[in-house]
Protein: Orotate phosphoribosyltransferase
Amino acid sequence: MKENELLTVFKERGALLEGHFRLTSGLHSNRYIQCAKVLMYPDLAEELCTKLAAHFKGLDVDLVVGPAIGGIIVAQEVGRALGVKAMFTEREQGKMTLRRGFEIKAGERVVVVEDVVTTGGSTREVIELVKAQGGVLIGVASLVDRHSGDLDFGVPYYSLLKLQIDTYDPADCPLCRDGLPVVKPGSRS
Structure:
């Protein structure tokens, strides 16, 4: 599936929203990607994540990790496609952690995956956790890359769809100035 076909899938499934949104990062935007609206279709989740996984074939991956909530399905499907374990991290008292008996063994080769990367903050938190547990980060991937500016995870980063979407500091948001109500559709309040 090419980028323009993938964008069409996101639009048809109602995953590309228009309006005034407060992102997890705190920034505001006029567009929002809700990957869950695409991932709720198991056939699409499998197809897209298999395509992500193909980027890491032959790299001797031991484990795929994604942050809850957006990265859970992506990690599971990429792990399935690679034939390796998959797990997810969760926030506990504001800090990314491993729970539910999950552990990363020293030396395990890890790919970190996400549904959408905006600032890269959640992804970086997962990377720090992987390294703190002794894992070896070998790659990062997401379904959608909507970041702007500099983004360096220290390893190759791959995404299926790159979108240029404006973001605004809340203090200088034209949508706020126009009086449009702001919506927080993400997984963190």
